[in-house]
Write a structure and sequence with these properties.
Layout: H1 2-14, H2 17-23, H3 30-56, H4 65-92, H5 94-117, H6 123-139, H7 152-177, H8 182-197, H9 212-239, H10 242-248, H11 251-263, H12 270-289
Helix pairs in contact: 1-9, 1-11, 2-9, 3-4, 3-8, 3-9, 4-5, 4-7, 4-8, 5-6, 5-7, 5-10, 5-11, 6-12, 7-8, 8-9
C-alpha cells in the first residue's frame, strides 16, 4: 500500500502546477515557466540525489550504454514535457489542460510498456484506466455539453506532454529495474533535463523572475512539484508498473480541477461533475486491486 500512497501524494503535488502558474506573473510565458521549472528543479533534484548517495554510501549504480541511453532519453522526455504542458494549460485552462495530459498519459504509457517489455497490463488496469479516461473526457469538454470549447493547439500540446510523460516514466522504470535507487534514477534524469534546458533560457524573457510573485512561483514549482513530487513518484514506481503509476497519477488532474474550481473561478457542467466521479472511481478501483 505504501508505494500507492507515495504515487498519490506525488500526484497531488503535480496537481498544483497549473494553479501556481496562474498565480504567477502575467508576463511569464509558458515556455519560460516550463524551462525555469525544469532547470531549477532538475538541478535541485540532482543535488539531492548526490547528497543522499554520499550520505548513505551506497555502491554507485551500474552505468553502461543501456543506462546512459535511458538517462538521455528520459531527460529529453522531461524537457519536452514542460513547454507542451504549460501551453496546453494556458490555451485551454488549468483544469482542461491538466486532465487531457494526464488522461492520455496512462494509455500511452501502457501501450509503450506493452511494446517495450511485452508486459501486458492487468484487467484491473484496463477497467480502471478506461473509467478514468472517460471521466477525463467529460471533464475536459471532449464530449458535447461538458464545459468550455477545446483549443486544437492546446489539445496538441497536452497530448505531446502525455507522450513525453510516458517516455520519461519508462526511462526511469528501466533504471530502477537495473538496480538504481529511486533518487539516483529520477535525479539523474532530471539533472540531465536541466542541463539540456539551460541554453534555451537565453531565448525566453526572464524579466519576471525578479518579481516577488515570480520568485515564489519558481520556488514552489521547483521544490514541491519537482523535488518532493518526483522523489515520491520514483519511490512508488520502484514497486509498481509504469502503467499502474500513470493511472494513479490521474489524481493530478483531479487535484488541478478542484483547485481550478475553488481558486481560479473555473466551472464544470453536470457532465463535468460526472466525469470527476468516474475519474475518482477508476483510480480507486486500481488502488484497491493493488
Amino acid at each position: 500500500m505504501r508505494p500507492i500512497l507515495f504515487v498519490l501524494a506525488a500526484a497531488v503535488c503535480f496537481g498544483t502546477t497549473g494553479t501556481a502558474q496562474a498565480y504567477g506573473p502575467g508576463a511569464a510565458s509558458s515556455s519560460a515557466v516550463g524551462l525555469t521549472r525544469i532547470v531549477v528543479g532538475g538541478l535541485l533534484l540532482g543535488g539531492v540525489a548526490c547528497w543522499l548517495a554520499r550520505r548513505s554510501r551506497l555502491v554507485p549504480p551500474t552505468l553502461g550504454r543501456p543506462q546512459l541511453v535511458a538517462v538521455l532519453v528520459g531527460g529529453a522526455g522531461v524537457l519536452a514535457y514542460q513547454p507542451t504542458f504549460f501551453a496546453g494549460a494556458r490555451l485551454n485552462g488549468v483544469a482542461v489542460g491538466a486532465v487531457v495530459t494526464l488522461g492520455a498519459a496512462p494509455v500511452l504509457t501502457g501501450l509503450l510498456e506493452w511494446v517495450l517489455t511485452r508486459q501486458v497490463p492487468t484487467r484491473a488496469w484496463f477497467v480502471g484506466t478506461s473509467c478514468a479516461v472517460a471521466g477525463v473526457a467529460l471533464i475536459g469538454g471532449l464530449v458535447d455539453g461538458a464545459g468550455q470549447a477545446v483549443s486544437a493547439a492546446g489539445l496538441a500540446g497536452s497530448l505531446g506532454a502525455a507522450l513525453s510523460y510516458a517516455v520519461y516514466t519508462l526511462a526511469a522504470k528501466r533504471l530502477l529495474a537495473d538496480g538504481w535507487s529511486a533518487t539516483a534514477a529520477i535525479g539523474s534524469v532530471f539533472a540531465t533535463a536541466a542541463v539540456m534546458a539551460a541554453p534555451f533560457l537565453l531565448l525566453v524573457d526572464l524579466s519576471w523572475t525578479t518579481s516577488t510573485s515570480g520568485v515564489a512561483m519558481i520556488a514552489w514549482l521547483a521544490i514541491v512539484t519537482v523535488v518532493i513530487a518526483y522523489v515520491l513518484f520514483a519511490a512508488g514506481l520502484r514497486s509498481l508498473s509504469a502503467s499502474s503509476v500513470s493511472t494513479l497519477t490521474l489524481v493530478e488532474p483531479l487535484t488541478a480541477c478542484v483547485l481550478g474550481l475553488a481558486l481560479l473561478g473555473e466551472q464544470l457542467s453536470a457532465a463535468g461533475w460526472a466525469g470527476l466521479a468516474a475519474l475518482l472511481a477508476g483510480v480507486t478501483l486500481l488502488a484497491v486491486r493493488r
